[in-house]
Write a structure and sequence with these properties.
Rossmann fold; 7-stranded mixed β-sheet; 7 strands; about 30% helix; globular
């Protein structure tokens, strides 16, 4: 799936606002490792990056992209993001999702609304006050528009006293363009 450079740049900037060296963060859908590498660059030295993907080739591609890292803990797991609750990540400062399918791989293997919402539940339960999650939802493939609708419904159900969310797309964005959801946890509940 083609990445949207402007929305990807925006997602990285929004995550950069809330993370620092030493933080623990998550790439819930590592793909070819672009977001994982970005997160590593922002939490080193001393940070921890957890990265998940259901496809072994995604883990291998990310491992190649990262090379050897000595000043940051990196946990790459070949597993679906819906299994996040089984990992002992500890509290997270940030999380990133890049939904859809792995570029250059089988387009039949995609994220699904139910598994994505399960993973978002686990992130919600772990995200620290002041933390942030971005979700890039690609709508131009079969099932993508429905997944984006389910993510929007999940966001709308968050308690507004503790959570803020928005769609970061500029006005007039085509219906088939990716959607960037930005979910932030308040420093303190109102």
């Amino acid at each position: 799936m083609r990445r949207s450079p402007s929305l990807t740049t925006l997602a990285h900037a929004l995550i950069t606002e809330v993370i620092a060296p030493g933080d623990t963060v998550l790439d819930a859908t590592m793909g070819n490792g672009h977001d994982t590498a970005f997160l590593v660059s922002r939490v080193r030295p001393g940070g921890t990056v957890w990265a998940l993907d259901i496809q072994a080739q995604a883990v291998a591609a990310t491992r190649r992209r990262l090379g050897l890292i000595h000043d940051c803990r990196v946990e790459l797991r070949c597993m679906g993001h819906e299994n996040l609750s089984t990992l002992d990540t500890g509290p997270l400062r940030a999380a990133m999702f890049n939904l859809g399918y792995l570029p250059g791989a089988d387009h039949g293997t995609t994220t699904r609304p139910a598994t994505t919402c399960t993973a978002l539940d686990a992130v919600r339960d772990r995200l620290l006050p002041g933390g942030r999650c971005t979700v890039m939802a690609y709508t131009g493939h079969p099932g993508g528009a429905e997944e984006a609708r389910q993510v929007a419904a999940w966001c709308q159900a968050l308690p507004s006293a503790e959570w803020d969310w928005r769609l970061a797309n500029p006005p007039g964005t085509p219906e088939t363009a990716p959607r960037l959801f930005v979910i932030s946890r308040a420093e303190r509940a109102a």
